[in-house]
Design a protein that fits this description.
- By secondary structure, the chain is α/β, with parallel strands linked by helices.
- It has a domain at 5-111 and 174-224: TIM Barrel, CATH 3.20.20.70.
- Helix content is 41%, strand content 21%.
- It has helices spanning 20-27, 44-56, 70-82, 95-103, 126-139, 155-165, 179-188, 197-200, 208-220; strands at 5-9, 11-12, 15-16, 34-38, 60-65, 87-92, 107-111, 114-116, 121-123, 144-146, 170-172, 192-195.
- It has an eight-stranded parallel sheet with strand order 7-6-5-4-1-12-11-10. Strands 2-3 form a two-stranded antiparallel sheet. A two-stranded antiparallel sheet has the order 8-9.
- The longest helix is centred in the middle third of the chain and has 14 residues, at 126-139.
- It is globular, with a radius of gyration of 16 Å.
- 43% of the residues are buried.
Amino acid sequence: MKTTRLIVMLTYQDRTVPNAADLFAQCRNTPAEYWGFKEEGLSLPAMRELFAQMKACGKKTALEVVAYTEEEGLRGARMAADCGCDLLMGTVYSDAILNFCRTHGMQYMPFVGRVTGRPSVLEGTPDEMIRQAEDCLRKGVFGFDLLGYRYTGDKTDLIRRFVAAVDAPVCVAGSVDSYQRLDEIKSIGPWAFTIGSAFFQQKFGPDFAGQIETVCRYLDHPEEGAPCC
């Protein structure tokens, strides 16, 4: 069984950090295969150049778009296509965005539930989100961006129920900021999860690259336990 993927997000508080390119250069040899950032924080030329660098290093790329209207979502989708991204994450689902992703060879992972704010907050019931996901799957989306740890209800219950019920890739995005939550991710087994702000807050160690190494190693060898310092 393949280990759940870590998607390293060069973002803090749902915005791309200004030194994202320097950070990637420092961390490009870490085991993380998937890398991404948000649609806000860098100019489009800077985004394009950074994604090109990631691709040149053999990485898979994602743009997560925090957008709640079709117009904003399409704007983000056009940015992702211009940057050659593999994944478009986020946006409220729209047929127009799905069709755009198909045309431009991107996999689409929209939000589910009622998402508001920035940093995002997730509301709704698990049953509502599962039904929404089933409707989107019938239309042909690749998977889902589940803001499980931003949920206003029982976070772990939502993630567990949604991943079990939805037969598609699920990325648990946002606020994976402790070894307890890594243990939950490992137990539930979603397709992927993101870490962004927690790395900048040094939740897994003092060094950015070292934290990526630590999380990847912990996912592969949880029996070693969390580092004590």
